[in-house]
């Protein structure tokens, strides 16, 4: 109770102080990260710099699919449906042209429809509207991390590791960061009603199904379970 009182007083005291732009709202030992729209700031605690996100001696493909994706996801929050309504100093400003905003909304709606299609159990669909900010950050973050991986490779050809090409390793590295214990369907349905993040499984499926490079890497063809026609793949940024 005293700890809560102290923390509560600490927060209220901020009202009489200038904004501390160096303050972290996450501890260094948290395996997580965040983007703050009002500070236009990405924070990556030290504890994130370990497997499955990052390993100094691992191949670039795995590190870009893991930590690279994580960083690009946080950056993209500055340009998701909420973040895109703020400027670089954290002020709420409309900086897009009406034409660009309309196009952005149209693509966001396609992404909402994509996630609404995923079914946890017969009749229990994900809520694409609730999770749109995270789904934009996942879909665009994965595309940006892949671009960064290609840039890091430059003219070099990626090594084949354990029978997987560099391109495959990138997507496998990404998917591995979402490996988790299965949860009961009822718990997943409850979570889907309130959590702004899609369940882990759909954070993988939803993001990769929008990447042209993923189809090339694994030769995904029409009729395969993860196939989306090119015109249905969402590209936001
Ligand atoms: Zn996020």
Describe the fold and architecture.
- The chain contains 8 helices and 4 strands; from the N terminus they run αββααββααααα.
- It has one domain: 3-Layer(aba) Sandwich (Collagenase (Catalytic Domain)).
- The chain has a two-stranded antiparallel ribbon with strand order 1-2.
- 46% of the residues lie in helices and 5% in strands.
- Helix 2 (60-76) packs across helix 4 and helix 2 crosses helix 5.
- The protein has 237 residues and is mainly alpha-helical.
- It is globular, with a radius of gyration of 19 Å.
- The mean pLDDT is 95.
- The protein binds zinc ion.
- Zinc ion (ZN) binds next to helix 4.
List the helices and strands and how they pair.
Blueprint: H1 2-13, E1 34-36, E2 41-43, H2 60-76, H3 98-117, E3 119-121, E4 124-125, H4 132-153, H5 166-176, H6 185-194, H7 200-208, H8 212-218
Antiparallel strand pairs: 1-2, 3-4
Helix pairs in contact: 2-4, 2-5, 4-7
The structure holds zinc ion.
The site of zinc ion has 4 residues, from α4.
As laid out across the biggest beta sheet, the strand order is 1-2
Q: Which structural category do the helix and sheet elements fall into?
A: mainly alpha
CATH hierarchy class name? Alpha Beta
How far is it from the N-terminal to the C-terminal residue, by CA?
46 Å
Could you tell me the mean pLDDT?
Answer: 95
Uncertain segments are none
Quote the CATH topology: Collagenase (Catalytic Domain)
Compute the CA-based radius of gyration. 19 Å
Q: Helical region count?
A: 8
Largest sheet: 2 strands, antiparallel
CATH architectural type: 3-Layer(aba) Sandwich
């Amino acid at each position: 109770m005293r700890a809560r009182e102290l923390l509560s007083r600490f927060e209220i005291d901020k009202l009489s102080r200038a904004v501390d732009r160096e303050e972290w709202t996450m501890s260094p030992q948290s395996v997580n990260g965040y983007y703050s729209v009002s500070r236009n700031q990405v924070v990556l605690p030290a504890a994130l710099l370990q497997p499955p996100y990052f390993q100094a001696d691992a191949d670039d493909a795995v590190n870009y699919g893991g930590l690279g994706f994580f960083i690009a996801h946080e950056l993209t929050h500055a340009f998701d449906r909420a973040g895109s309504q703020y400027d670089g100093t954290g002020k709420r400003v409309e900086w897009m042209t009406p034409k660009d905003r309309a196009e952005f909304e149209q693509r966001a709606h396609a992404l909402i429809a994509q996630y609404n299609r995923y079914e946890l159990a017969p009749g229990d669909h994900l809520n694409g509207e609730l999770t749109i900010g995270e789904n934009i950050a996942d879909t665009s973050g994965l595309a940006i991390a892949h671009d960064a991986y290609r840039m890091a490779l430059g003219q070099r050809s990626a090594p084949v590791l354990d029978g997987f090409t560099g391109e495959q390793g990138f997507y496998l590295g990404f998917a591995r960061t979402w490996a988790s214990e299965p949860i009961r369907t009822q718990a997943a349905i409850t979570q889907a009603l309130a959590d702004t993040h899609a369940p882990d499984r759909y954070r993988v499926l939803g993001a990769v199904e929008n990447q042209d490079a993923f189809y090339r890497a694994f030769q995904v063809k029409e009729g395969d379970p993860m196939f989306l026609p090119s015109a249905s793949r969402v590209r936001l940024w």
